[in-house]
Amino acid sequence: MQTFNKYKIGYLVYICITALILSSINSHILPQSKDKFAEWQKPVFEHFSSEEGYSQSGVFAILQDSQGFMWFGGNGLVRYDGYNFKTFKYNPNDEKSLSYNGVISIYEDRSGVLWFGTEGGGLNKYKRETDQFTRYTHDANDPNSLSDNVVSSILENKSGNLWIGTFGGLNKLITSDSVTSFIHYKNDSNEPTSLCNDGVGQICEDKSGNLWIATGDGLDKLSLDEINKASPTFIHYKHNPDDPKSLSHNAVFSVYVDHSGILWIGTIGGGINKLNPGEFNQPNPSFIHYLNNPGDPTSLSSNLIWQILEDAAGDLWFGTLRGGLNKFNKVNEKFTNYNADPNDSKSLNGNSVYSIYEDNSGILWVGTTPGGLNKFDPLKNQFNHYKHNPNDPTSLSSDRVCSIYEDRDANLWIGTVYGGLNKLIHSSDGKFTPSFFHYSHNLNNLRSINSVLSICEDEYGNIWIGTMNSGLKKLLQSGKKKSNPKFINYEYDPNDPKSLSNNFIRTIYKDKIGNLWIGTEVGLNKLISGTATMSPAYFVRYLHNPKDSTTISNSRVWCIYQDQQGTIWIGTSGGLNKLIPSKDYNSQATFIHYAHDSKDPSSLSDNHVISIYQDNSGNFWIGTDAGGLSKFDSKSEKFVHFNEEDGLPDNSIKGILGDDEGNLWLSTSNGLSKFNPKTVTFKNYSTTDGLQSNFFQGGAYFKNKKGEMFFGGDNGFNSFYPDSIKENVRIPPIVITDFRLFNNSVPVGLDTTTNRTILKKSITETKEIELSYKDFIISFEFAALDFHTPEKNKYAYILKGFDKEWNYTDANKRFATYTNLDPGEYTFKVKG
After folding, report:
1. Which one of 38, 391, 414, 632 has the lowest number of neighbouring Cβ atoms within 10 Å?
2. How far apart are CA 440 and CA 418, in angstroms?
3. Closest Cα to residue 594, out of 626, 624, 564?
């Protein structure tokens, strides 16, 4: 007999909270935006296709199981772990495979058993340990079998009985002495209290334990005291054309009890019906109807209702046939419709909605047919996004946003490259549709507005515009009305030393006493103005002189900032400058320089200073183009640096704004970052969180009086309230999803390639594996079941007995491989 040395490998899954999973919020808490523009903001739907491994064109059923996996029923059954889709299909040669590919209902009972209803293969019970199914089908010769093979719904009531709705009546599953049988409840034309129709749709249970059954010919109620009777009495609710308060239509498919105990009924042709709990026991209850009104865009979009869901925030969602998805606000009783838009790749991918599901982290999953799977993550709507729409002449004129400013009347001004100036008018009634008015470039007028790099309002209400190459422009307060704009132009004149020093205007800043400072490509300028309508008297120029160390350190000016003491600071391509004014404040001044010194780690980190901010505690923060963020101590005149190694997404800090909690919001060349100076931690956001793009423009940032922040970049701009950006406090479960030998997945049971049984159970259920010394290349694959932005999840793993310390990895490398392990016992652990 040949003897093999053996070793054992067991694994233990550890779950922990990590700040590195950014795109998550508290379970069942949706962001409540204070944004005045939020009314128009549409959900962003992500779609799954064959490129992501999901090949189903229709989704009829969705469920998240107790382990955290997502399940989708369509043309086959699919399990999703956030990265990979595992598909289960009918196999005619395997009686333990799925009985039929059309899966239209999914349910998990209180003991954790998964049940799947099909549209032609009956009911399936799933065994996790072996990835196998037990089939329950209709047999015409067996009166105790399932009454029909089309299983539309599954429900376990409070008594622990499993009820199955089929197109051949209602069934109750009975298990006795390991024998499963079904009790049938069908329509009997000779018995008026029998089920009113054999075509059963959905089933739900109210708070009193009564069952409500949707059928093809009305709504039925099975009272709690009738449930266990051999011949129970069903109470029927049907449409009565002579009673406007009766059920609106007899073709009922969906029934749903919300958190308040209200019953909602979806009909195929008669819209939605609402039945309050006080009406449940009335002989002629009053149904409230919600129908489509073609003349009212806030009404239900279609009278064909297939699916109903109440989310954690209390809003109701209705899936319609051919009318898309509807969200119902219970307070104002208005519907918001979301449908497929061929011009919007982020809209719903189909208008016939057959399934809606909210997972335990607040993500909404929507199945359409045809179309497929949609995912709506409310976190990705936390950042309102404004961009150019070529089909909408009132949208933003261009996507490259370089400047943002809100005037005293709460109108928003947006400067773009090649798209001119945009004005977004604030509506006094609080209702807002994003309609931009454009002040655009005129090819016949070289002095017209083209590329706008900076915007500022003076004390008279005039708007000053800094352009890329056509100088400074003043939009008179009297000409701000879109019908008659009036501009005054100010440009560089080589023959006039009191003219603007350069036509490339990067920044404009109004100080506390109303002076305007203009930063250009060639020098700093101070505007010495006359009256509100007359031209300014002149500009005072501050230029770099290499022979005079008291001049500005570099003539290329990026930003200007006045601190709480009234001192003017200037960021240039030659470092940070502190301006010491002359006595009359209108002539030349001296400058104190702070520059990078490679020999001094406490000096400025980089000489290209592009953003400056002083927080409420008086701390100075300097954003550089390549050296990250620096904290400046004005007393010691030393700098402390923060860069990518500390958690910044990028070392180019384009803008800095502070919120009421003392956090800094930093726009960079690679996303937006929230920096907590107290804990010295960064939370980074990217396009996966709803940002316009990962690249932000310098100068395109603004905070208004209400605390709303605006950041612009190469794909429009974002707005948000910092306190509405929620963070994740949910602990995602971690699972082992695959075990491999020599890079091949090990099957459950007998492996025909090796003629061995290594896994007796599915890897998700396995606690111990015993291997031969010949199995010298082994791998584990794992996943954190968090679906917000799985690509951002971070992991660490260790093989106790082999590894000396934890190995850290990201979502792109969710596996651990070991080779040539010595005989012995090992424990594999992973955390996410």
Report:
1. 391
2. 8
3. 624
